[in-house]
Design brief:
The chain has a domain of 185 residues: 3-Layer(aba) Sandwich (Rossmann fold), CATH 3.40.50.300. Helix content is 25%, strand content 25%. The protein is built from 8 helices and 12 strands. The chain is globular. The protein starts with a strand and ends with a strand. Magnesium ion binds next to helix 2.
């Protein structure tokens, strides 16, 4: 048994439907691709990888990709073929265990396909230095890694030379000024190590702002509307709808009725 998929290409930014039918609850967030790398402490992963990805990611192509965690384990999925292009908004849909997270890990260069090829701008992922790949991708995930410091410190983390005013401008542009303003001291709200000081939903928004500020070529949101309150959910959906993001947006979800602004849907399903 493995996961197969269907790809729906829908009209880009079809007319808005009611989002009140959305019944997902939201989970907290945020982990940069670099951080995943540090956490997994993967060494020597660049051996034999000669290419550096030195320009924006414009295309990502999966060609008959299959993956299994170990040779004695069954395939998670097989024969995935699809491509993403700059500007695509992709919904990655599937039940628990169908391989959504695994697919993201392949995208981040954490795993290599067992079969088939995955390429970025026409270059095989297996020959691209993983860090040059990950620098271009942002992940806002279910686990929150905010550090001790202010909300502003957390947003500016890892952003070379960006200033407070750049953050304020972006927050304004995203329509999040009021939302951030409701935190006790706005951008200067202190976050403790265990993220106390902000809620899970607020942490998710902070991670999201950080990813937007970094202008990554690929932005992956893992369950962005799980585990946050109604207002935060509406805020996230509103910002995603606004189309400001110009790169490849990939949103993982079990179910997202009403999220009709995607132009591609990859639906992973278990097949016997
Ligand atoms: N490190 C691992 N080693 C072995 N098998 C794994 C590993 N991680 C995941 N799997 C298996 O791969 C399959 C896909 O898992 P994955 O986490 O990608 O699913 P998912 O679609 O993200 O699920 P969820 O909706 O629960 O997040 C599952 O059968 C899972 O048990
Ligand atoms: Mg998952």
């Amino acid at each position: 048994m493995y996961t197969s998929f269907s790809l729906y290409t829908t009209k880009v930014f079809a007319s808005a439907q009611s989002i009140t039918s959305l019944n997902t609850i939201l989970k907290p967030v945020c982990l940069s691709a670099e951080r995943i790398y540090q956490l997994l402490n993967m060494e020597d992963e660049n051996s034999g990888k000669v290419a550096e990805l030195d320009s924006r990611i414009k295309t990502i192509e999966f060609l008959h990709v299959g993956y299994r965690y170990r040779t004695d384990l069954p395939l998670v999925f097989n024969d995935l073929t699809f491509s993403f292009m700059r500007g695509d908004k992709v919904l990655l849909l599937g039940d628990n265990g169908t391989g959504k997270t695994t697919l993201i890990k392949l995208l981040l260069g954490l795993y290599q396909p067992a079969y088939g090829t995955l390429s970025f701008n026409g270059i095989h992922a297996s020959s691209i230095q993983s860090d040059s790949l990950r620098q271009r991708m942002g992940v806002v995930s279910q686990s929150t890694f905010l550090f001790r410091g202010t909300v502003l410190d957390n947003i500016l983390y890892g952003q070379n030379g960006k200033s407070r005013s750049a953050v304020e401008d972006l927050i304004d542009e995203l329509g999040l000024k009021e939302y951030i303003g409701r935190m006790p001291k706005g951008l200067d709200t202190e976050i403790n190590q265990n993220t106390s000081g902000v809620s899970g939903g607020q942490a998710q928004i902070i991670a999201f702002i950080r990813a937007m500020l970094a202008e990554k070529d690929v932005l992956i949101l893992d369950e962005p509307t799980a585990n946050v309150d109604e207002e935060t959910r509406r805020t996230i959906i509103h910002v995603l709808r606004e189309q400001r993001y110009k790169g490849i947006l990939i949103v993982i979800s079990h179910q997202m009725d009403g999220m009709d602004f995607f132009n591609k849907t990859i639906h992973l399903t278990k097949t016997l």
